[in-house]
Amino acid sequence: xxxxxxxxxxxxxxxxxxxxxxxxxxxxxxxxxxxxxxxxxxxxxxxxxxxxxxxxxxxxxxxxxxxxxxxxxxxxxxxxxxxxxxxxxxxxxxxxxxxxxxxxxxxxxxxxxxxxxxxxxxxxxxxxxxxxxxxxxxxxxxxxxxxxxxxxxxxxxxxxxxxxxxxxxxxxxxxxxxxxxxxxxxxxxxxxxxxxxxxxxxxxxxxxxxxxxxxxxxxxxxxxxxxxxxxxxxxxxxxxxxxxxxxxxxxxxxxxxxxxxxxxxxxxxxxxxxxxxxxxxxxxxxxxxxxxxxxxxxxxxxxxxxxxxxxxxx
Length: 314
Prior knowledge:
Number of domains: 2
Number of strands: 14
Largest sheet: 6 strands, parallel
Strand order of the largest sheet: 3-2-1-4-5-6
CATH topology of the largest domain: L-2-Hydroxyisocaproate Dehydrogenase, Chain A, domain 2
Order of helices and strands: EHEHEEHEHEHEEEEEHHHEEEH
Distance between the termini: 48 Å
Strand content: 15-25%
Structural class: alpha/beta
Shape: globular
Radius of gyration: 19 Å
């Protein structure tokens, strides 16, 4: 009987998000993990790999982690998650990271093109929508095999704040955030429910507006608290939800920055929309019926994304 090959997950960037991605991958037994970074960070990634492998004995995880600075170890990956880049500091916008992180992304995209061209690639690096566009173009990946992680995280923040405001189980909150990963993102209040009850019937307008504002500024709130970096637990869990849906063919519907080809009136840009993720990668982009105010908000978000993407020099 032929032995089933373990899946392989490569994490490009061994920082806070990378380390949490490795841990979550092992805890969910998604496959073996390569924690990759530049040569200067060799000790860091090898140390984290060793630490997690030793943790595995406590609960009996069978996945293994290696720390590497050699792209050859990424070869044959089923999933690649990119976190490499400089995190925000207080007072910085995600767009402020464009030039420095674009240089890093160009190197990463070439590495993926050469060593893991068949992987499902999830980008977490900011500015998210521009970075995933650059990745797609440079690595020449199929449109269904490259996506940006933002919507899952933004939606998770939205759900968190709703559950907090209502003092209710977060498991009963259903919500969706569309658009770019920035201050113009669009939490769809009209479509949100708690236990099937419309959110608009449970909270007054002023509280809903406060939740929208906090959701949009969710990343900046954490940057201000951490002072030396940005969020890592939430982004890691959000990325793993996407990777898991691909690896296990779960066909979950998750908001993500996918290549739009006419949906929402947008063509040729990566933009946040609900997508179905399964073994075929992004198998479907789902269109939500929007009212005029929601359409206007989404158009404003798109113009912000378009401005950043159009400034990208490849």
